[in-house]
Design brief:
Strand order of the largest sheet: 1-2-3
Number of helices: 13
Number of domains: 1
Distance between the termini: 6 Å
Largest sheet: 3 strands, antiparallel
Radius of gyration: 20 Å
Shape: globular
Number of strands: 3
Strand content: under 5%
Length: 365
């Protein structure tokens, strides 16, 4: 059944997330005033002009492009995103920051291609699983293709390295596979492979092991690996029930690392308190609930799997970020979507929202 209008409730939830993110980011940005070398004007331009304005434009466009078009070109979109992500390793094109090569710099502007790769992965996996349908329970058509896509994507993303982004991509892949009604034995097999892979990665990468140790015992190295989580918990605790008020965070000034990046939820908790934090978390839960409703009513398997994948991409990343700032998950360095600094992340997120809105136009009776 064709629906002339997009899902208005979902659109309102997104609007509230965008508005909340704008105000939280604006307040957190004040913390840059005391940081040497920080260019607040260029950061605000990147977030508002390149992220928000272009993102809303992309959302408007993708909400009107029939989602089935992505299925036709899914393989090419995935290959293009892989090549683009690999270009961060090209000299004079890729940009390094904090020991990681995750950005491409062109004409003074930076772009993080792995954000596009996550979406391309979801599109291609959804298209593949929708095409094999009943054969998904066969290892040849379900388990192995998914594992191959994850390994290929991981080879590029982990080389940067970007463990957090790969984790979100893998979670989305697992959830799409689950929604496609894969065999339970295959799902458990994926979990086993993931645990083995995670163990090997932790042993090979000292910085990952340091984050795990800091997560288990932040006080062991409070001025080193445990510094960020310690400062984050101070900020969260200082907010108490109703917070210090808009713009009144103390921790964002020379205490919290990346106050506009992955630490922004700590700033939110300090300024808006427990009540404000719960309201923000509730918006993400409402986003997930309504998104899954749209997915369940989609008029095609591809639309259902695509909507599930996009919702999981956005919600899992956001909850991992917030959980890490609360000390209930190891630090990953991934941003809080709709809120944190990152024009690419905001642009791609709003583009993805547009795809879900388009899926909501085509629902079963």
């Amino acid at each position: 059944m064709h629906r002339k209008n997009v899902d208005k409730i979902f659109l309102i939830i997104v609007g509230l997330l965008v508005l909340s993110g704008f105000f939280i980011f604006s307040s957190a940005s004040l913390g840059l005033l005391t940081r040497e070398g920080a260019r607040m004007s260029s950061i605000m331009f990147n977030q508002i002009a390149l992220g928000l304005v272009l993102g809303l434009t992309a959302m408007f466009i993708t909400s009107r492009v029939h989602y089935t078009h992505y299925r036709k070109y899914a393989f090419y979109i995935f290959v293009f995103a892989l090549i683009l992500t690999a270009m961060v390793f090209v000299p004079f094109l890729g940009m390094e920051h904090g020991g990681a090569k995750r950005w491409i710099k062109i004409a003074g502007q930076t772009f993080q291609p792995s954000e596009l790769l996550k979406l391309a992965f979801v599109i291609y996996l959804s298209a593949w699983l929708a095409s094999v349908k009943g054969m998904i329970k066969n290892l040849k058509y379900g388990f192995f293709p998914l594992l191959g896509m994850i390994v290929i994507s991981g080879a590029v993303i982990l080389k940067q390295p970007d463990t957090g982004t790969f984790l979100v991509l893998a979670i989305a892949g697992f959830c799409i596979f689950f929604a496609a009604e894969a065999k339970w034995s295959h799902l458990f097999g994926l979990v086993g492979v993931a645990l083995a892979g995670a163990g090997g990665w932790i042993m090979m990468k000292p910085y990952v092991l340091q984050r795990i140790v800091a997560f288990l015992n932040p006080s062991a190295d409070s001025l080193g690996a445990g510094y960020q989580i310690k400062q984050s918990l101070i900020a969260v605790g200082s907010g108490e029930w109703f917070g210090r008020g808009f713009g009144k965070s103390i921790q964002k000034f020379n205490y919290l690392p990346e106050p506009i990046g992955d630490s922004i939820f700590a700033v939110t908790a300090e300024e808006w308190g427990f009540v404000g934090s719960v309201l923000l978390i509730s918006l993400f839960l409402a986003f997930a609930f309504r998104g899954f409703q749209i997915a369940s009513k989609s008029d095609s398997t591809f639309g259902r799997l695509l909507a599930v994948g996009i919702v999981i991409l956005i919600v899992s990343q956001s909850f991992i970020n917030m959980a890490s700032m609360l000390g209930i998950f190891p630090l990953t360095g991934i941003p809080l979507l709709f809120v944190s600094h990152g024009g690419t992340a905001l642009f791609i997120t709003l583009l993805e929202v547009g795809i879900i809105l388009n899926i909501s136009r085509y629902q079963k009776r």
